[in-house]
Amino acid sequence: MKLLRRSILMLGLGLTSFVASADTDTIKTRWADVKVDTVASGLNHPWGLAFLGDGRMLVTERAGNLRIVAADGSVGEPISGLPEIKVRGQGGLFDLRLSPNFSNDNLIYFSYSEPETAGSDITSTAVARARLENNKLHDVKVIFSQQPKVMGGRHYGGRLAFSANGDFLFIGLGDHGHRQDDVQKLDNHTGKLVRIHPDGSVPKSNPFVNQADAKPEIWSYGHRNIQGMDIQPTTGQLWTVEHGPQGGDEVNMPKAGLNYGWPVITHGEQYGGGEVGIGFKKDGMEQPIWHWTPSIAVSGVAFYQGSQFPQWQGNLLATGLKGQQVARLEVNGDHIIHQETLNLKRRIREVKVSPDGSIYLLTDEPKGAILRLSAVK
Amino acid sequence: MKLLRRSILMLGLGLTSFVASADTDTIKTRWADVKVDTVASGLNHPWGLAFLGDGRMLVTERAGNLRIVAADGSVGEPISGLPEIKVRGQGGLFDLRLSPNFSNDNLIYFSYSEPETAGSDITSTAVARARLENNKLHDVKVIFSQQPKVMGGRHYGGRLAFSANGDFLFIGLGDHGHRQDDVQKLDNHTGKLVRIHPDGSVPKSNPFVNQADAKPEIWSYGHRNIQGMDIQPTTGQLWTVEHGPQGGDEVNMPKAGLNYGWPVITHGEQYGGGEVGIGFKKDGMEQPIWHWTPSIAVSGVAFYQGSQFPQWQGNLLATGLKGQQVARLEVNGDHIIHQETLNLKRRIREVKVSPDGSIYLLTDEPKGAILRLSAVK
Ligand SMILES: [Ca+2]
Ligand SMILES: [Ca+2]
Predict the structure, then answer these.
(1) Which residues of A156-178 are buried (b: 16+ CB within 10 A; e: fewer)?
(2) What whole-number distance in Å separates Cα of residue A318 and Cα of residue A272?
(3) A70, A107, A148, B315: which could join A99 in a potential S-S bond, CB 3.0 to 4.6 Å?
(4) Domain total for chain A?
């Protein structure tokens, strides 16, 4: 398609030569020339992706559908049996993860904007699990529902991650955009990172289980809008990314019970602009490990492991919506020591490393695509 | 001058309007619009700068002169009494620092390429101290001389820094370019960071004073070419920057007795390229806090403190030669959490924060300048 368009353009300019290779599909980076292929297209704001292990992928569309994409890129019919999802603003169907025991139990976990009652605009982020069989969900069970539900359709968070041992499910949440006053309080799930067991029960080891008036599901707080999460393979530690207000997109490594500062401190502009409100730092509040200012509108993250890009082992890949990029962050211990930017020229929602070491991206577009990054041999 | 040139250019293009403000002299940054003024010019590869406290500055030229620059920018005659300096390749007069007790003792410390015998091309980096009086140096004493001296005119290091209490002088050194085999051995000063007392004696607390065959002046080793050094005001910790081979310029926080990896590990290309030699990491060798890949040819560093740029408190400013920039690095504890690049469009050798909080830069040019960065009000 790209070749064709370019040829037409060149003819239009009175040129006759034919361009044999589309160099726009290759990104030169420090350690590798990266080939960008389109695996599938026509997905309505794809948001989450899981590899099914047999070449097929399970993909969510924010517009409210869950589909299987075959290895050849053909997109299946919507999987039936989803609960009611409120598709409005930033709300819709968000992330999905396979059960750590998927090959035996066929369970999947997914997050979405859940209306208070059928059709209501009062929503919050919920997580359900269900058994996937014959393109249909069975035994759907809501295992978490963010409290309180509120009007408005922004800052749902919605990213999911299982702990390395599979015993815990982390759920990244947001502040709804207009409920910042709740974020520093522990009696609600607004602007929180939550940790539950996969059956929805609350782990006894959660930091606030014995604190009166605190929601026991809370793992950490002071988050604005968690958009990406992944477990670091070498340490088992959860890393998250979240959106800043205007600049100040953050990378964090949330620890039990700690406060990540929103809306009191930020490296973005809302509180740190010309006048300087409370500013960047405050005792008792954690600093980010890294921030992007100006913002890239950071979305998904994944630690790289694989044979396609041997120099990238252990790097954290972070995607940007507005930033239209993959940021390759070199990690040493608990900090970043270098950043390289891969310019994709499309809004990128999520990144996953496939079993063969190639990297899959979802584009945030009404006719969104699955892209694959692999090394030019 | 810039205005004039632009006007002439515009007239040449048949334009008649007059540009009232030269916006090329302002750099827009996240937190401030930065005005760039030329304080002085006509300096032959200026390398080091110290504020004398009365508005005057002491400046080294790599070409072998030490001069006083008045507050109005007029450049004084060369100060007499310097020892013999071998000006060749990267060699010449390097850094200078005032004695911590300068207002009483009038002592200065400076580093330079010292020939083995008069006129010899066999050189190494030496540090001398002298009393400055009436544009003349008195009682010049060489307090350190890097061993061994070798042929070749590259990778001298040469940056100096006093510890916060003034009891210790750090001297950053290099590997001479072709003496990498010496860098991991402790019986020489090649590729080392050295710590001495200001009188040249060896501190009893140095890490290798009791190790047979080790040079007792060594503080840390495995450095390729230390180009910038500053003490972090809030912690008293020394931070250094050094050049990588081809990419992999580093920020380090050298601790006593530790190994910073050169030439065994690097984030640059020499050992990490297509083939991957030993690579990025090795047990017993420290990782950099930050690296620039591709290289900016990092030169000077200074921690910012001052009233001109209130949002930059505690930031580490690092200059680039090839990179023609000031990199503003936001520091949290012992790591970098954000970088912003100020494009100066000239090779920058060194950065110093002046008593009024404006930032002075030296350009690395045969007719080099002192530039001042201040906030546009
Ligand atoms: Ca934060
Ligand atoms: Ca190193």
Answers:
(1) bbbbbbbbeeeebbbbbbbbbbe
(2) 24
(3) A107
(4) 1
Contact B337 A311 (CB under 8 A): no
Beta-carbon separation of A337 and B336 below 8 A: yes
Residue with tokens 């589909």, as numbered in its chain: A67
Q: How far apart are CA A109 and CA A228, in angstroms?
A: 16
Write out the two tokens for B122. 């066999």
Q: Does the active-site annotation cover A155?
A: yes
- Quick one: which of A248, A191, A251, A249 has its CA closest to A220? A191
- Assign residue B9 a region (left: φ > 0; alpha: ψ between -120 and 50; beta: otherwise): alpha
Strand order in the sheet with B290-292: B226-231, B238-242, B249-252, B290-292
User: If you measure CA to CA, which chain B residue comes closest to A267?
Assistant: B338
Query: Which domain CATH number covers B117?
Result: 2.120.10.30
Rg of chain A on CA atoms, in Å: 21
Q: Which of residues 260-279 of A touch B (CB under 8 A)?
A: 267, 272, 276
| Largest distance between two CA atoms of chain A | 76
pTM: 0.90
| Ligand number, closest to the Cα atom of A258 | 1
Question: How far B311 CA sits from the closest chain A CA (Å)?
Answer: 8
What letters, b where the CB count within 10 A reaches 16 and e where it falls short, cover A197-229?
A: ebebebbeebbbeeeeebbbbbbbbbbbbbbbb
Q: Give CA angle at A58 (A53, A61), nearest 5°.
A: 160
Sign of the Cα pseudo-torsion (B171, B174, B176, B179, in order): positive
Q: B287: domain range?
A: 2-375
Cis (ω within 30 of 0) for the bond into B198? no
Contact (CB, 8 A) for A135 and A82: no
Alpha-carbon distance of A71 to A318, in angstroms, equals: 25
DSSP code, position B271: T
Residue of B291, B292, B332, B336 best to disrupt the A interface, most CBs of A under 10 A = B332
Give A367: exposed, middle or buried? Use CB within 10 Å, 0-12, 13-18, 19+.
exposed
Inter-chain CB proximity A267 and B293 less than 8 Å: no
Which ligand lies nearest to the CA atom of residue B250 in the structure? 2
Give me the interface pTM, i.e. the ipTM.
0.88
- State the number of CA atoms in the 13 A half-sphere of A117 facing the CB: 0
3-state SS class at A2: helix
Q: How far apart are CA A58 and CA A95, in angstroms?
A: 10
| CB-based contact, A289 to chain B, within 8 Å | yes
Q: Which distant-in-sequence residues (6+ apart) come within 8 Å of A340 by Cβ?
A: A29, A30, A327, A328, B293
pLDDT along chain A (377 residues), means of 10: 35 32 72 95 98 97 98 97 97 98 97 97 98 97 98 96 98 96 97 98 98 97 98 97 95 98 88 54 96 97 96 97 98 96 97 97 98 95
- Helix H or strand E segment including A5: helix A2-12
Confirm or reject contact between A247 and chain B (CB < 8 A). Answer: yes
